[in-house]
Amino acid sequence: MAKIKIKQTGSPIRRTKDQRATLVGLGLNKMHRVSELEDSPEVQGMIRKVRHMVTVVEA
Q1: pTM of the entire structure?
Q2: 3-56, pLDDT tens digit by residue?
Q3: Which CATH number belongs to the domain containing residue 11 in this structure?
Q4: Residue 20 carries which DSSP code?
Q5: For the chain, how many structural domains are there in total?
Q6: Where are the alpha helices (DSSP H) in the chain?
Q7: Using CA atoms, how far apart are residues 45 and 13, in angstroms rounded to an integer?
Q8: Distance (Å, rounded) from C-alpha 45 to C-alpha 32?
Q9: Whole domain around residue 46: which residue ranges?
Q10: Which of 22, 27, 37, 45 has its CB surrounded by the most CB atoms within 10 Å?
């Protein structure tokens, strides 16, 4: 399966708890961290939920 890299570009300060939990689920919790995950529908849904705080880089 394909891999994608996700970089956190926005701060979780003043965000809802579920958005913070989604970032942690993606392996991100501090600014400018990069996480490499399998490209699956579940991961795509999580990215869509916090799309204003992350950038997707093709791996």
Answers
A1: 0.91
A2: 999 999 999 999 999 999 999 999 999 999 999 999 999 999 999 999 999 999
A3: 3.30.1390.20
A4: H
A5: 1
A6: 17-25, 41-49
A7: 21
A8: 21
A9: 3-58
A10: 22
